[in-house]
Amino acid sequence: MQHVSILVPRGQYSIVNIGGAFQILNWASDMFFNQSRQPLFQVELVGIGTPSPDADGFYTITPQKTLDQIKRTDLIIVPAVHGNLEQVMKENRPLMEWVVSQHRQGAEVASMCIGAFLLASVGLLDGKKCSTHWGHAGELAESFPNVQVVAENIVIESGGIYTCGGAYAFTNLLVYLIEKYGGRELAVITAKSYMIDIDRGSQSPFTIFVGQKSHQDETVLKIQQEIECNFSTAVTIETLAAQHAITRRTLERRFKKATGNSILEYLQRVRIEAAKRKLESGSFQVNETMYSVGYSDPKSFREIFKKFVGLTPVEYSQKYTKRVA
What one-character-per-residue DSSP string does 36-73 give? Predict the structure, then answer.
């Protein structure tokens, strides 16, 4: 039997992550017991203290155990904690030092959504690949350069550390863990019972591209605005460089440093985001959408769209187009 510690951190923790993990893992354990007459998990809520109110005072969870009462555990689940991430990492330092100690003793660790920031804050993700909510992936990569952020993936396992994408992607992580500990059949039954899309591998279809503008390079900011306003027309790097009295090589270097994308990648992302919105509206066919955002080659459009979205334009349209009743 595996002992599972679901952490109740300090701050504005995700009651959905905590409650959902507690319910689904216990359900799977009961199902496993019915089949094998052996329990799969012993699941306990663990906190620094008890009770543990959230930072806004909306709700309180009473952990079953405190850190000092858990001498050894097999799997630790770290939920998302919202708010000021720097403050969240600071006030949960004692909690994460306990996680590090348990990991050294052999415990595996799974973080949900932006819970990855807590793991990164104590070096547990150094040199490892990880996932997190797509909207925070850039911030995680910038804050912790030793972490290999792979925001496209729903679930990533790396050296006994599990991370997952944002929001309800945590259910995919739970099914993944259930399969590891209890087998494929149990994972499938759990997924069906909770209507979880098993084996979903990418969160790219859910990504909304928002230009990276937290930097201070005024020239790059102006070029980003120009691209976003004129994405459907032909844009050349030479023209942009000449307009701003800068060499192409210098512009490309500064743009990449500021945004994390090359100029071409940024243009492609802006175009594809516009294409997604047009397809979602239901007012545009795929070919109309392609031409309206600046592409003329169907094969190229399809490949670029799938690269960033994980689906073809047709697949995306079928999945997300607004239907008229």
Answer: HSS--EEEEEEESSSSEE-TTSS-EE--SEEGGG-S--
Q: Which secondary-structure segment (H or E) carries 164? A: strand 161-164
The structure's pTM equals: 0.72
**Residue count (the chain):** 325
Backbone phi, then psi, for 249, in 5-degree steps?
-60, -45
Of all residues in the chain, the percent with pLDDT exceeding 90 is: 69
Q: What pLDDT digit, counting tens, does each position of 65-90 carry?
A: 999 999 999 999 999 999 999 999 99
Contact predicate 102/110, CB 8 Å: no
DSSP code string of 100-155: HHHHHTT-EEEE-GGGHHHHHHTTTTTT-EE---GGGHHHHHHH-TTSEE-TTBSE
